[in-house]
Write a structure and sequence with these properties.
By secondary structure, the protein is α+β, with helices and mostly antiparallel strands. The chain folds into two domains: 8-176, PurM-like, N-terminal domain (60s Ribosomal Protein L30, Chain: A), CATH 3.30.1330.10; 185-353, PurM-like C-terminal domain (Phosphoribosyl-aminoimidazole Synthetase, Chain A, domain 2, Alpha-Beta Complex). It contains nine helices and 13 strands. It has helices at residues 15-28, 71-84, 105-122, 175-179, 204-214, 228-236, 251-263, 278-287, 309-317; strands at 52-59, 65-66, 69-70, 88-100, 125-134, 163-173, 195-198, 241-246, 266-270, 300-304, 326-331, 340-344, 350-353. Helix 3 links the parallel strand 4 (88-100) and strand 5 (125-134).
């Protein structure tokens, strides 16, 4: 196990920076492209001339390690999933690290190892990156920073060094989409009669992170996972996929509300069909939370042609990450008036569902 801590010298670009590259990042991410140690990666041309898809995201989750994952796993899975949602095959990742001085090198190495494992599992290669070191700053128990003017009186604040990760994902459109024989998924492409499929139980990641911050002991684990297998199975089933989104911050209500607005459609949910585990449902009852607005890191919503719904659901359920998938609603047909999201409740009523307003749980990803 590596000993010592990150110092400001590790961000100098000199010997200590080189040490991080050799002993942690270079060792954990070793591959022919990265081993060149160039300032940029020269990548192979697109397979078959397909169009490139790129997505980037930054991760500031607190705590860094949680039940079911850590910030490294989260960074890889989150970015891979964003590329997948565009109908692309994720192929490359870049990663940038912002380290606070005092961070344990063993912690950094653990995160790098986690990223290496998840990248390998998702079939992507880390080909470039960057590292910066910043001064250590005090934080409160909820992970928020203490302002400079309050720092002198923040003796009781949590001051454990932080770690932030930025990742960029690069992929290529699937062959059928690239050739035009299969429609590309898009938020504006929802059609009347489409089935809305959710790939599994909602709220696990949100409940896990909140439990960790509050010191609540339970068996809830984050759903942090790559959706490569789920999306591959969906397309291999031949289903006509009109829209896909990973259900992260803002929850299912926000994701579907945005799709409805982009498509000018009315999406109708059935509350009885919304998948939530018993433990998360109980946690929500105690905390006053609504699973529709809770963040996830390994779930997606897919809108598929209504005629393909059963086959699409079976394909998703055949995968490890999609075994709890459910059809949770439909895109309304006919003249529906204003677009948006509504839900038929357990008692038979209908209510309008809005996107998340205000701040949800901060630093959840």
């Amino acid at each position: 196990m590596l000993k010592g801590t990150v110092t400001m010298a590790h961000g100098s670009g000199g010997m200590e920076s080189s040490l991080l590259m050799r002993e942690i990042f270079g060792r954990r991410f070793a591959n022919a492209t990265l081993d060149r140690l160039e300032d940029a990666a020269v990548l192979a041309p697109a397979r078959g001339g397909g169009r490139v898809v790129v997505s980037t995201d930054s991760f500031v989750v607190t705590p860094l390690v949680f039940a079911g994952g850590d910030i490294g796993k989260l960074a890889v899975c989150g970015t891979v999933n964003d590329v997948l949602m565009m109908g692309a095959v994720p192929t490359y990742l870049t990663c940038g690290f912002i380290l606070e001085e005092g961070l344990e090198l063993a912690t950094l190495d653990m995160v790098a190892a986690s990223m290496a494992r998840e990248s390998d599992a998702a079939g992507v290669t880390i080909v470039a990156g960057d590292t910066k070191v910043i001064e250590r700053r005090a934080r409160q128990g909820d992970g928020s920073y203490v302002s400079p003017e309050r720092r002198a009186g923040a003796e009781d604040a949590t001051s454990a060094p932080g770690l932030f990760v930025n990742t960029t994902g690069i992929g290529y459109l699937r062959e059928g989409i690239a050739s035009g024989s299969v429609a590309a998924p898009a938020a504006m492409a929802a059609r009347a009669g489409d089935a809305v499929i959710v790939s599994g139980n909602l709220g696990d990641h949100h409940a896990c992170i909140l439990s960790a911050r509050l010191g609540v002991e339970n068996g809830i684990e984050s759903d942090c996972a790559s959706l490569v297998g789920v999306v591959d199975a969906l397309y291999e089933s031949g289903s006509r996929v009109h829209a896909m989104r990973d259900v992260t911050r803002g929850g299912l209500a926000t994701v579907l509300g945005e799709i409805a607005a982009s498509s000018g459609a009315l999406i109708e949910l059935d509350e009885r069909s919304i998948p939530v585990s018993d433990e998360v449902r109980a946690f929500c009852g105690v905390m006053g939370l609504d699973p529709l607005y809770m963040g996830n890191e390994g779930k997606m919503a897919a809108l598929v042609d209504g005629e393909d719904a059963d086959g699409a659901l079976a394909a998703i359920r055949s995968t490890e990450q999609g075994r709890d998938a459910c059809i949770v609603g439909r895109v309304a047909q006919g003249d529906t008036g204003a677009p948006g999201l509504v839900m038929r409740t357990r008692v038979g009523g209908v209510r309008r569902v809005s996107v998340l307003r205000g701040e949800g749980l901060p630093r959840i990803c």
